[in-house]
Structure formats: C-alpha cells, structure tokens
Design goal:
By secondary structure, this protein is of the alpha+beta class. The protein contains four helices and five strands. Strands 1-2-3-5-4 form a five-stranded mixed β-sheet, with helices on both faces. The longest helix has 16 residues. The protein is globular.
C-alpha cells in the first residue's frame, strides 16, 4: 500500500478534480461552501478526533472530503455547530476513536442525511453533520 503522504496527495487531487466541475461547485454551494473556503481532506481511516481537530480551525460550516484509497471513492460532508437536536431526535454516541469513513457510512444509513454528535465547537453543545453527494448522477 502506498505511504500515507502519497494517499493524502491523491485524495487532495481528487477533491480538486471534482471542484473543477461547475455542477459540483453548485452542489457545494448548496451545502454552505463558499469559493475560497478550505476543504478538509481525510482518508476514510482517519479518526473522528483527528479530522475534528483539523476541521474546527475552519469557519463553519466545514466541508470534509473523505477518500477511500482502496476503491477511489470520494464523498463529502459538512459539519457545523448545533445547539440542540430537534424534539425527539437523540444525539448519537459515536466515539472520537471511530473513523470518519465509519461516521459517513453511519450517516448514510440514517433516515435523512443529518446526524448530531456530542462534539463541542465553540459554545455549541453538539455538532450537525450532513452528507451530500458531489456527483453528476
């Protein structure tokens, strides 16, 4: 398997290729991304704690590109602070040692595309996570 730095470069290149497409940029904009915003690029095996440490340096909402090196799969999600889940929606008990790929797949299997986690961002009590598809299908 390729070394980690090479995999991270490949992931960043895949993100850049996607951003070159106007339709993809439109989808990003619909999820709060503004031209010039940083996209946190992560390997699917990165822990949530590691990604969160990089992500919280960005102004919310933070866009994260998640890359699966074995398959070349690339998915995107946004994270932003959230005060409390809506009535009847509990926060998920996902630990920081879980991987970002596991989190994305978990969100994908939930009703809707949203998830709330017990991660603090500034004064916010929880984290709002929303996956989105950046494809031309």
């Amino acid at each position: 398997m390729a070394d980690e730095r090479a995999l991270r470069r490949k992931a960043a290149f895949e993100v850049a290729k996607r951003l070159a497409d106007p339709e993809i940029r439109r989808q990003f904009g619909a999820h709060g991304y503004r031209s010039g915003d940083a996209i946190v690029t992560a390997l699917e095996s990165d822990t949530i704690d590691d990604v969160y440490a990089r992500m919280r340096r960005q102004a919310p909402p933070a866009t994260v590109g998640i890359y699966w090196p074995e398959s070349g799969r690339l998915e995107f999600t946004t994270f932003e602070p959230d005060q409390a889940p809506p009535a009847g929606q509990a926060r998920e008990g996902i630990g920081g040692a879980a991987t970002i790929g596991m989190l994305f797949d978990h969100v994908s299997h939930q009703q809707g595309n949203q998830l709330r986690l017990n991660l603090a961002w500034g004064a916010a009590a929880s984290m709002h996570v929303e996956r989105f598809t950046a494809s031309l299908t």
